Amino acid sequence: METRKVQVTGGSTYTVSIPKSWANDNGVSAGSTVEFYPEGDSLFMTPAGGDERTEGTLDITNLEGNELIRAVTTMYVSGFDIIALESGRITNAQRRTIREATQSLVGLEVLEETKTEIVIRDLLDSSELSIHNAVTRMRLIAASMLEDALLALRDLDRDLAADVIQRDDDVDRLWMVVSRIFRATLRTPKASEELGLPREVCFDYHSSARQLERIGDHATKIAHLTRNIEREVPEEVLDALDELHAEVVTVIDGGMDALFTDDGDEATRLANDVRERVRDVDATARSIDELLRELDPARAQHLGLIVDSVSRTADYGGNIAETALQKAAPTP
């Protein structure tokens, strides 16, 4: 840390010098333009940036399959706009994997392709992305997945269960977008300014998006379990699951409403109400477990996993409510 004294020049203009080492490291010299971003009682300064896109290079010689997918995903989430994947010779299997990775991420397209290099570019304008819209979309998809997963269980509809499983890819793509936007706000205050949201709020959205992604995972788990059920589920168990699902929906909706409202008092009221409702969900889940005791052990265990997944989604809704409480709390 370095300190500087604020001085007055011309009788009315406040000036302060900047560390020479920082200026040299960032290409700032006499005549350079810098940008200032006020945030609360802080003022962030960065060198004036142009429209240059961030480029990154990755050696994929020893990467295959899921490792290669994770590597591409990491470069994307980290914020690189242009990703060059290089190797002495890129195999056909690697090319297929790279295409799979790009198709699973929003905005990525293969720009160039040679024997030794594949260049991927993000075609989206980051300034046009909205973390609020992405989280809202995640909420809608995750909620519909959970509803349809239980409907598939009631009707033993394997096609609907397969559709739920496929929709999890949409939630995952949006989760990656949210993560990419959030990390951008950590790197530069300009990204936060373009979003029109403080970085603390972006963090709250990112945390909540993670909970929505997990809700989608549990809906997917229910769909997978449903595809392995051969006999119809007892009606009393299905009715109890419907009641449990209705309680879970109020928890998730209440948590998200608390997160999105700008009224601190309303957010606190909604979030505290959600925390009470989570207890009701736990009680309902325990009552269903009692019903399952009357079934044969193997079947009871199978359905018990479904009950557990439904009740866990309420816990994630409760986590969103906790985040909303923190968002509504006074700022130090």
Can you give me a brief rundown of this structure?
It is built from ten helices and eight strands. The chain is of the alpha+beta class.
> What gross morphology would you assign?
flat
Strand content: 5-15%
The beta-strand count equals: 8
DSSP summary: helix tally: 10
The strand order across the widest sheet is: 5-6-8-7
Helix content: 55-70%
For the residues shown, what is the average pLDDT?
Answer: 90
SSE pattern, N- to C-terminal: EEHEEEHEHEEHHHHHHH
Q: Show unreliable segments.
A: none
Straight-line distance between termini: 22 Å
Radius of gyration: 25 Å
Largest sheet: 4 strands, mixed
Helix/strand/pairing class, anyone? alpha+beta
Tell me about this structure:
By secondary structure, this protein is of the alpha+beta class. It is built from ten helices and eight strands. 33% of the residues are buried. The model has no long low-confidence stretch (mean pLDDT 90).
List the main descriptive attributes of the protein structure presented here.
two-stranded antiparallel ribbon; flat; 8 strands; 63% helix; alpha+beta; 332 residues; four-stranded mixed sheet
Topology (elements, then pairings):
Elements: E1 7-9, E2 13-15, H1 20-25, E3 34-39, E4 42-47, E5 55-59, H2 65-78, E6 82-86, H3 92-103, E7 108-113, E8 117-122, H4 131-155, H5 158-187, H6 189-195, H7 199-226, H8 235-260, H9 264-292, H10 297-328
Parallel strand pairs: 5-6
Antiparallel strand pairs: 1-2, 3-4, 6-8, 7-8
Helix pairs in contact: 2-3, 2-5, 4-5, 4-7, 4-8, 5-6, 5-7, 7-10, 8-9, 8-10, 9-10
